[in-house]
Amino acid sequence: MISDNLQEAINEQIKYELYSAYMYLAMSADCSDRNLTGFATWLRMQAQEEVEHAMRFYDFLIERGGRVELHGIDKPPVEYGSPLEIMEQSLDHERFVTSRINGLYDLAFEEQDRPAQVMLQWFITEQVEEEASIDEIVQRMKMFGADGAALFMLDRDLGARGPEEDEE
Fold first, then answer.
1. Would you state the pLDDT for residue 163?
2. Which of 30, 139, 150, 163 could serve as 145's disulfide partner, Cβ 3.0–4.6 Å?
3. Percent of the chain having pLDDT more than 90?
């Protein structure tokens, strides 16, 4: 059985994972509006991945005999600025999620909940990959430019992202 404290913290994390999906969908729609179809595809795939993350937490609570309580999800912004600003906001958001995952791990460690620690270790590794992936895009945009031919090529590259790149 999972503790009430950890159960509540995981329920809160489900909300943040689903908000992440909403945010990435909103970013995707913003890019679609500007004919940045590669960015839109990449961000939409990111949204799907965030829903999968929420479901990992959801399933974990159920497996541990906990109760899932879905919290309200805030409305994300509609516009996000330039493509570079979108990716910088994505990176900042992933860093925020990382801090939340680390806090969950600290709570699981404090409560000596080893199954939660094992589950959260997957998320810790995932967050390292998430941050590195987005940071690489941001650094490319800063190095090669965030407009013109460089943006066109990056948009094409991001549009090639497929589900096979995402881990389950």
1. 63
2. 150
3. 91
Whether 167 and 126 have beta carbons less than 8 Å apart is answered as: yes
| Closest to 13 (Cα-Cα) out of 45, 55, 47, 43 | 55
**Alpha-carbon gap, residue 87 to 81, rounded angstroms:** 10
Q: How many structural domains is the chain composed of?
A: 1
Predicted local confidence at residue 168, as pLDDT: 43
Residue ranges of the chain with pLDDT lower than 50?
Answer: 164-168
CATH number at residue 35: 1.20.1260.10
